[in-house]
Specification:
Length: 345
């Protein structure tokens, strides 16, 4: 196959360009060369979490890799056949295990037999979906397309300490002819919320609980506080959920050093309220994450509250590997229609 050239600095310019390229290269067998990797970031090039994705995809496909080292601004990746089996990968930092899983999940779903993978690193990271999101939102969505995997949170891991781990069991994707159709507006109703706290004063969670109750206009008993074991953390996350018609959406904000607890709660509450007001069936995070699966399957159509630069960039990477027709149409500022049609070869 011809080598696909990818400019890693285009669009959003982040690690998702590399992750999507790795997934689709492994699945299609098309080799790629990516340059200007994360060039616009404060610390450009491959970080440990990106390198872990390269090494995992490389091991699963016995790939030839050139440039797979910390700080590298380019990478040549040439996969062979996908191998099912039992794998274990450690990021070595608090880098996101969920982003690593999302890189290799579609690859393992294309294997002939089930696989198991254990990943070590961060499980609740800023700028990445927490494990809760994969369990409650992402997994049911891709199950509707025929992709089935079990996911277990073994140990929480927060930035910057890490130390978390997850286990996934991935089944082969037998039928790829299920289209994704989510176009009916709905009422998401009253939210639920939860606070995760690890090795931090109880007052942090209590302040977040009070702010969530005020901002979301819900009683305190709809906001759970979960205190994690002493060996975990320090770490803090606030999660707001809406549940309706058997579906869940989830929005998260993370505590940081010198960041007031009330600000963390306000961030999660604000994003959740904006989404609920749109009445969209698909949140903008899932809109980004599911594009690859629609492209590998029969396509689909859905409504979402926003089309991010992240999603637009992700789609352009997918286009370089697969023939697609797609559109993003604004119905109003907080409601978009996304269409993706797979061209028949």
């Amino acid at each position: 196959m011809a080598l696909i050239e990818i400019d890693g600095s285009f669009g959003e310019g982040g690690g998702q360009i590399l992750r999507t390229a790795l997934s689709l290269s492994a699945i299609t067998g098309a080799p790629f060369h990516i340059f200007n990797l994360r060039k616009g970031r404060a610390k450009p090039g491959l970080k440990r979490q990106h390198l872990a994705c390269v090494k995992a995809a490389g091991e699963i496909t016995s790939a030839f890799c050139q440039g797979a080292e910390l700080g590298s601004l380019e990478l040549h990746f040439e996969p062979k056949a996908i191998r099912f089996g039992s794998y274990s990968f450690a990021i070595g930092t608090a880098g996101s295990t969920t982003l690593l899983l999302q890189t290799i999940l579609p690859i393992l779903a294309m294997a002939a037999e089930p696989s198991q993978v254990i990943l070590h690193g961060g499980t609740h990271n800023p700028m990445a979906p927490p494990v809760d999101y994969l369990l409650e939102v992402f997994r049911p969505a891709v199950a509707g397309l025929g992709i089935n995997f079990d996911l277990e949170l073994i140990q929480h891991g927060f930035y910057p300490k890490g130390g978390g781990s997850i286990r996934a069991r991935v089944q082969p994707w037998p039928e790829r002819d299920l289209a994704f159709e989510q176009t009916r507006l709905g009422d998401w109703g009253e939210p639920l919320a939860s606070v995760l706290l690890a090795n931090l004063p109880a007052s942090v969670a209590e302040r977040e609980q009070k702010e969530l109750a005020r901002a979301l206009r819900i009683p305190l008993d709809r906001i759970e506080i979960q205190v994690l074991p002493g060996e975990v953390g320090p770490g803090n996350a606030v999660m707001v959920r809406f549940q309706a018609e058997g579906r869940t959406v989830l929005f998260t904000a993370f505590g940081e050093k010198h960041k007031r607890a009330e600000i963390v709660a306000k961030e999660a509450a604000r994003e959740a309220k904006l989404f609920a007001r749109s009445r969209a069936p698909v949140d903008h995070h899932l809109a980004d994450q599911i594009l690859l699966y629609l492209a590998l399957g029969r396509g689909g159509r859905f409504l979402t509250d926003a089309v991010t630069e992240h999603a637009r960039t992700n789609l352009e990477v997918i286009r370089q590997f697969l023939p697609l027709n797609s559109s993003f149409s604004s119905l109003r500022p907080d409601l978009w229609e996304v269409r993706l049609e797979v061209e028949k070869s």
